[in-house]
Amino acid sequence: MGHGTAHHPDQRIGQLMIEAGIIAQEQLNTALRHQSHCAERIGSVLLRLGYLNTATLLEFLRKHYGSPSIDLYSIHIAPTVLNCLTFEQMKQLQALPLIPSTKGLFVGMADPNNIKALDELEFILGRKVEPVAVPHIQLDAVFRYIEKRGGRITTTISGEEVEKEQSEGIVPDTLELQKLISLLIKKNASDLLISAGVPPCLKLNNEILRLPGLGLTPLEVEQSARELMTEQQWNEFMEKGELDFGLSNPKVGRFRVNAYRQRGSISLAIRNILEDIPTLASCGLPDWLEEFAMLPQGLILITGPTGHGKSTTLAALINVINTKRKCNIITIEDPIEFLHKHKMSNINQREVGRDTPSFHEGLSRIFRQAPDVIMIGEMRDPASFETAVQAAETGHLVISTMHANSTTTAIERIIEIFPPEKQQQIRIQLAESFLLVINQRLIPKSNGAGRVLAYEKLANTHRVRNLIREAKTHQIRSLFKHTAEEYQPLEVSLHNLVNRGEISLEEGRKYCESPSAFREMSPKHP
Hints:
The strands form four sheets. The protein has an eight-stranded mixed beta sheet, sandwiched between helices. The chain has a six-stranded antiparallel beta sheet with strand order 8-7-6-11-10-9. 41% of the residues lie in helices and 21% in strands. α17 runs parallel beside α19. By secondary structure, the protein is α/β, with parallel strands linked by helices. The chain has three domains: 165 residues, Type II secretion system, protein E, N-terminal domain (GMP Synthetase, Chain A, domain 3, 2-Layer Sandwich); 97 residues, 2-Layer Sandwich (Beta-Lactamase); 225 residues, P-loop containing nucleotide triphosphate hydrolases (Rossmann fold, 3-Layer(aba) Sandwich), CATH 3.40.50.300. It starts with 8 loop residues before the first helix and ends in a 5-residue tail after the last helix. β9 and β10 form a beta hairpin. The N terminus is likely disordered.
């Protein structure tokens, strides 16, 4: 046995299996790589990979621990025996009461040599405990079965039923991707997240919901990624290590997929793209926003953190223009999230990677396409910002998104992305061309039914223009402390939502930028 493997228990057990002729070194190496992404014992990983069968593992456990071993899927456990321990005690001690013995009680344990746990079990039960070795993967399956039924069992547990429920979980061995995507739609979740080491997860109301089932292996995730990509996309992903692309299925819907590498394995984030184009009202946006969308030129920015509805607001604004103006709209998106149809306007949607190589390439030729309105999915680099400002100055309406924590931060970020020698020029251009910056947050509703929009507004006026020119953008928040025609801080929107009972005061405090200003607006609240 090599010196480097002797000190890690799972590596040591794996080496013993090799010496017993149960597995090969290559199989152990593969299992250890998979194990690095999950919390399973090495025997359970080997079972899942098909390198061992249950009978072989049980025989190894019997010899290794010097105690009996048993297949939990082949037995029945009476509730009177099972409820000798609380569910919390079972999980804490990793022990499962099985059947009375002549000396006391047989208890299933993944580690029957855990003396501390055995002593505590005998103290709690007041009788002799005889440990029985069981596969860790089976013990976890029984615990999930009990937890699903509220932590207390009133009827006999059938091992066959536990095994059947486990195999019929959300994630079967082959990882039925279509089933998961259907669940994403059914639950009205925003994203499906697939990573090695954990079961697939849904992102619902900006919180992670972990689905039932076992943690996925790196191989399973890689197979899913390959299933989603074309050969060209797979080759590009292998070269770059990450890839954005769109999926479309007439029977299921449209999705935005991001594939990326982490800790040597692949992860997938699959976003559900709604077919229905949102309206300003459905987004919770104010009516006055339409006035800005109808202006012939200038720059409108939708800002905020990831996952707070920027793309949805963007689609709603484009829909207003498409419905009420006769103009030529050109979009550059990565990928296309909402499919717009021609209405009063012509709308031409270009997807990065499919219709144009990059944002930079798409924007460099956009003026030749006779645009009236330019929509940029996200501004990321100086070239994008420079083209957007230039277009807004030269008679085009430009609408885009960017990541920023406030309206004033967004203005400063645009300026600071340029080298120092160009910053004053961009500052002057931006002061003249920008129309409106909206910064938004989606806040959990007090009734638990989804999220509601809170927003901060910064519109361009003579006062704001001068502050930007003079490099005093940071003073806007203090000069227009609570609200003004051109500026409304996030706290005002949060305060209104609290007063209407749509969000709790606690959530309002959590998301406000200025706690002191928020307290001043809500004197009746402690």
